[in-house]
Amino acid sequence: MKQDFHMDVYNKNLKLAYAPEASLADKKRILNYFLAYKSEVIIHSDCPKKVEDVILYLKGCLNIPSDNKNTYGHPLRNPIIGAVIAGLFVLIIWQYISTYFS
Q: Which of 21, 24, 35, 71 has the largest CB neighbor count within 10 A?
């Protein structure tokens, strides 16, 4: 089924996406609308920032994990940052221990 991407439908869905009285079923329908819009638009050009924002907002409302670039979640789970912190910790400990061995 072909979606209707006319500006009036687009603006109505954009307004309804942020409406607090919208039900979860409405938000799911609107999310599917904007995902279809994004896949249709991305063929020809970049997706508008408003569409990206509303998709992230609706995924948050519906508890759907977003496709963000940070796959580690918390910054300390990143192995590079963890290795740097561990290295600094070892250097600090070595400074204190080395005074006893010199």
A: 35
